[in-house]
Write a structure and sequence with these properties.
Layout: H1 2-26, E1 29-44, E2 49-60, E3 70-71, E4 74-75, E5 81-84, E6 91-92, E7 98-109, E8 121-129, E9 138-147, E10 157-158, E11 162-169, E12 183-194, H2 197-216, H3 226-248, H4 259-287, H5 292-319
Parallel strand pairs: 1-9
Antiparallel strand pairs: 1-2, 2-7, 3-8, 4-7, 5-7, 6-7, 8-12, 10-12, 11-12
Helix pairs in contact: 2-3, 2-4, 3-4, 4-5
Length: 320
């Protein structure tokens, strides 16, 4: 009986050791990956692309080589540069992990959404995957990341970059279920860019505000000056059209209205209302008594304040 128990205990021990070994083997090899952005340039919104120059490093324990990566959103891969920085051999860190660093440079795809122009923000991304090992075998995890402190992108504000790890499910085995997996470990480097608020206030909104103020100023003139009063909103409409065309030529064909288009549409409506009010007051003045001129002028001053408040409120609502 004792010998039977010993055999059972030994069998259980072997089974537990086998299960533990299987569980350890089933765990994917973890690779800690970091990126450091050196240069970011040639943002091309017409072709939805940008160029990036950066360092990328890998730290891992295990037999699999995680450095054979693929840049998922890279375009013009024939010009992509991905070279070791230093010797090709692995470096052993103090904690026993393997370490290897590369410097990469290339052109990457990014779909620029301009619906908030000129208050738009863009999250540029660089995605890596390993086409040889699926997510159950190799897993990329975020390490540290950064951006060159002296990097200055004219016309843009930069935020601190981030790294995000996920599993990319392609939804297909690419026609070969025996060799191709559906899910791969994906690591994404994100760099946020935003336009300065001063660009919106001083270069985009200020000229439009001046045009609207001059146009509304027609309501402050005496109703008898019909020619001068009507010329102000007409000139304002023409000026607004040219101003809108000047920034539209610098943007790609979007197929939708950007934020600045909506602000100009608001300005067109208000300037048109001013022009209609000028015409209406001129017609009233022909049939009105001399004492009615003061009432007309007083009413139009109120309308001028109302139109100005409507423009200010509309700008705030559209921007928020």
């Amino acid at each position: 009986m004792t010998q039977t128990n010993r055999i059972l205990k030994a069998g259980m021990l072997i089974l537990l050791l086998g299960l533990s070994a299987f569980q350890l083997q089933a765990q994917p090899q973890q690779v800690y990956t970091g990126m450091y952005l050196m240069n970011l340039y040639d943002l091309n919104m017409d072709e939805h692309s940008f160029y990036a120059d950066f360092y990328i490093w890998f730290k891992w324990n295990g037999d699999l080589d995680p450095t054979g990566i693929e840049f998922v959103n890279a375009i013009e891969k024939w010009s992509m540069s991905y070279e070791p920085s230093g010797e090709m051999t692995d470096t052993i860190l103090a904690n026993g992990m393997n370490y290897r660093i590369f410097r990469a440079e290339g052109r990457f795809f990014h779909s620029f959404a301009l619906n908030r122009f000129p208050l738009d923000r863009h999250l540029l991304d660089i995605q890596i995957e390993n086409p040889e090992y699926d997510a159950g075998t190799l897993l990329y995890l975020p390490d540290s990341t950064g951006i060159r402190q002296t990097l200055n992108l004219v016309g843009w504000n930069t935020a601190a970059p981030t790294l995000q790890s996920s599993v990319h499910d392609y939804g297909t085995d690419f026609g070969n279920p025996e060799e191709n997996a559906r899910q791969y470990s994906n690591l994404t480097f994100n760099q946020q860019l935003s336009r300065p608020v001063s660009y919106f206030l001083l270069k985009m909104l200020l000229p439009l505000l001046i045009v609207v103020l001059v146009s509304i100023g027609a309501l402050l003139l005496h109703p008898s000056y019909i020619d001068t009063r009507s010329s102000l909103p007409i000139g304002g409409l023409l000026t607004a059209v040219f101003l809108q065309q000047s920034y539209s030529d610098a943007l790609p064909d979007t197929g939708y209205m950007v934020l600045m288009d909506k602000l100009y549409l608001l300005a067109y409506v208000l300037i048109s209302l001013v022009l209609l009010q000028v015409i209406r007051s001129g017609n009233k003045l022909l049939d009105a008594k001399p004492s009615a001129e003061a009432n007309i002028l007083k009413l139009e001053k109120r309308r001028a304040m109302l139109y100005l408040l409507l423009f200010g409120a509309g700008v705030v609502v559209l921007c928020l």
